[in-house]
Design goal:
This protein is an alpha+beta fold. It has a single domain, classed as L-fucose/L-arabinose isomerase, C-terminal (L-fucose Isomerase, Chain A, domain 3). Strands 1-2-7-6-5-8 form a six-stranded antiparallel β-barrel.
Length: about 180
């Protein structure tokens, strides 16, 4: 999945079809590979920082320059065994500005919805497994409240470019998706 995404064929696990659609939209607007990550825990005492993580199918181009390590998937291995979970990439997301995007379905109203914004991945210290990093987004707590209050999934797509304005216009104006822009 990492190689496919890095080769500009977006790939997301957990059968996240609209996650792949979000990755593809970012990729088409930027010409660069997109990743899918989980919004995870807050980071330290800074309300605008959070941990991003995935068990890891992120494209190698989003990682710091050191060579990513392929290993077993630490979360699932406890249940099914290490030998059945090999293929996870362990590496840190490099420091960079990025655009995040989540396209989703509003099943009750029969329409497509989305949210988009920009932030930076930081070099704050952190050690874990999978694909991971620390991000800083202005008014992060407001964004997380919006995500929860509007029933969005825990996955978000990211692309290491600043294209939120383009994505908002494309989704909202041209495709008619109700799109929240977290400015």
């Amino acid at each position: 999945m990492s190689m496919a995404s890095n080769g500009l064929t977006p790939s997301a696990c957990e059968t996240d079809i609209v996650g792949v659609l979000s990755m593809l939209a970012l990729q088409l607007a930027s010409g660069k590979p997109s990743a899918i990550v989980d919004w995870n825990n807050n980071y330290g005492d800074d309300p605008d920082k959070a941990v991003i993580f995935h068990c890891s199918n992120l494209p190698k181009d989003v990682f710091i320059d050191e060579i990513p390590v392929m290993d077993y998937q630490a979360i699932i291995a406890g249940t099914v065994g290490k030998d059945k979970t090999y293929g996870t990439i362990n590496a840190r997301v490099k420091e960079s500005p990025f655009t995040y995007l989540r396209i989703s379905t509003d099943d009750l109203n029969g329409k497509m919805v989305a949210y988009v914004g920009e932030g930076v991945s930081t070099d704050d210290p952190m050690t874990t497994f999978g694909g991971y990093g620390v991000v800083k987004i202005p008014r992060m707590q407001e964004l997380l409240a919006y995500i929860c209050e509007n029933g969005y999934e825990h996955h978000v797509s990211m692309n290491q470019t600043k294209i939120a304005a383009v994505m908002h216009e494309a989704l909202n104006k041209y495709l008619g998706y109700s799109t929240y822009w977290h400015k």
